[in-house]
Fold:
Amino acid sequence: MTKKIKSTYDKLMESMTPKEKKEYETELKDFIISELVLAAMEEDSISVRKLAKLAGVSPTIVQEMRSGVKKSFNTDSFFKVLKGLGYNLFLERNGHVTPLGISHLSKK
Structure:
């Protein structure tokens, strides 16, 4: 009988309480948003102020997304920033793709 070797991630998840797992998942989502925004801004050589203007949001919101600190932005702001960066979002299920239609969000 062979014993399955657990990954470091599996060990970490097993050692956490449900509350710690929830906090970890929230922090991971914030980190992913931060990395996405940072990478897109770097690729396009775009500043916080310019992206904020393109997206119709305040520079503070863009800076929060860049830093991974979620204080005042919501999904609407996130979608506006994605649109300002030239992205669109799609859902895929069983090979069927549905656009989320963020193109209606106006640029201010």
